[in-house]
Amino acid sequence: MRALEEEVGVRLLARTTRSVALTDAGERLLASLKPALAEVEETLGQIAGQTNKAAGRIRLLIPRFAVSAVLAPKLGRLHREYPEILLDVTTDNRRRDIVADGFDAGIHLGEFIEKDMIAVRLTRDHKPAIVGAPEYFKSHPKPKEPRDLLNHKCINFRHGPAELYRWEFEKGKKELSVAVNGPLIVDDTELVFQGALQGVGLAFVAEHEVAHYLSDGSLVRVLQDWCQPFPGFFIYYPSRRQQTAALTALVNILRS
After folding, report:
1. For residues 80 and 208, is the Cβ–Cβ distance under 8 A?
2. Which domains occur in the chain, in start order?
3. 47-93: per-residue pLDDT in tens?
4. How much is the pTM?
5. Is CB count within 10 Å lower at the N or C end of the chain?
6. Do 42 and 34 touch, CB atoms closer than 8 A?
């Protein structure tokens, strides 16, 4: 208070060793501040209520290739059980800083999540599969090791404006990544599948996503012994401290 009095050059409180009272200027200042203080108190009450009630906006970042597998099947249940939650979804394949960009949480593959985040598993581990159409292999020999891919047409997947995924392989103690080339670069997994099915080139995909194509012979798998499991999808956020009930509800729905 003394700092404020010195700043405005007016005494706001009359002080003695026994008591403190508002001066006339102090009374006028308090009267003008009361509506604003009441509004602040009401807003704080609303914010505090979010801790206990599953309501309000959740800003969620998710890569496009995770939407159909992780989020889309749960939208109906989330709305039925928590109708007061407003889920604000941004789809972006780039790896972004959710705190700096104003998101409450994100969803991504486990290997791409920073270590300082709280991460909750949503799916099992994934296993990669290198696949191509039978038609493609009529004119191209099957690769026997990852480096053979440099002599093949491959479908590249773009994570960001200039970031192409390097195909990663592991066998025993050997680990390597290959920067493949080919006639198609996409940022949508459906285009990856269609490109492979139509003989454009080889594709790096998750095994479970193409299981039916492998079973009916539409796609053929190669380099299986080099394809080891990798972490599946997780929802992640900065801290468990004072987590809102809405975010807790979203996590529980996505985990179920």
Report:
1. no
2. 2-49 (1.10.10.10), 56-125+232-255 (3.40.190.10), 128-226 (3.40.190.290)
3. 555 557 899 999 999 999 999 999 999 999 999 999 999 999 999 98
4. 0.73
5. C
6. no
